[in-house]
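agent> step 3/5: call structure_predict on target 'gibberellin 2beta-dioxygenase' (Apostasia shenzhenica).
agent> reason: downstream docking stage needs a structural representation; sequence fetched in step 2, passing through unchanged.
tool.input:
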Amino acid sequence: MSNHLTQSHKFAAMASLKDACDPPFKEQYSSLFSDASRWSKSLDVEVMEECELPLIDLHHLHCGREEEKMACVAKIGRASSQWGFFQVVNHGISAELLEAIRKEQKRLFHSPFEKKAGSKIFNESYRWGNPAATSLDQFSWSEAFHVPLSNLSESNSCNEDEFSSLREVMRKVAGAMSELAKVLACALAENMGSNGDCFAENCNESTCFLRLNRYPPCPFPPATFGLVPHTDSDFLTILHQDHVGGLQLIKDSKWIAVRPNPDALIVNIGDLFQAWSNDVYKSVKHKVITNRKVERYSIAYFLCPSYDSIIGSCRETSLYKKFTFKEFRRQVQEDVKLTGYKVGLSRFLL
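tool.output (status=ok):
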């Protein structure tokens, strides 16, 4: 009996700690969830199939013969054109480092909500929900630390001792993913017959960032997104996700679920690469669905240029007018503020 009580108390304490770390989604956004069951009935939540993304072994990019390297570059280009997404193995980022960031990330997110919301760590980079959401289709049941790489090299006195190990691991992950992102960007440029040096020159710590994501269990699936459907406003994104799954993308005009592969990193094309490639590479809409019982974690690295960088086309007859990254971001923010939704590249078509 005593052992049973002890175990019960232990489970109750664990549940209490979990509840304390979750953001107050239901309380803060109660008006959105009042008709969640009705809204879910009209939502197209059926996923036609689960798929594995094209798998590319990057070993051939570094250590293969010239014909093997060119075949690898072609596979990267083909996946970016046909899917907008692919996964990579032998990418050079150690499993030990990815496991270390996963543990540090979990420790951070399991801190009490009040502590996360009031923390000065990474210059107040904590985000949760969608403050401007007026309907469920604009709302994300998730929390994140959205950290520019420049902030990783800046220390602050608040919580510095407690999270110093997290900061150090994030620096290592950001450095490794930065190198991988530039290698992939150069391969994509090479596949288009262009020089990829501009990606290394223009993408730096001031605008590239790392995002730590947590998707808590949600009592309102399938009416609520973990992350709303969107495209990424960058050149490319590198994603490390756990085994839970939940990532979905548009393929052949339908939503498909991405089967998790713990040994691979996911790469997806962003809006800027689609514009640069003159729509050869596709920035594909994707989303994250919620899970009623299980939390989900992911880490994303975003390769972005400096704000004044001009996004031109690699082809002479461009589909898009020239624009800077700053102009693109400003337009996206204005559209979201006015309509609740991102419009994106179509704003810049000639």
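agent> step 4/5: record observation. Residues 7-17 have pLDDT under 50 and may be disordered.
agent> proceeding.
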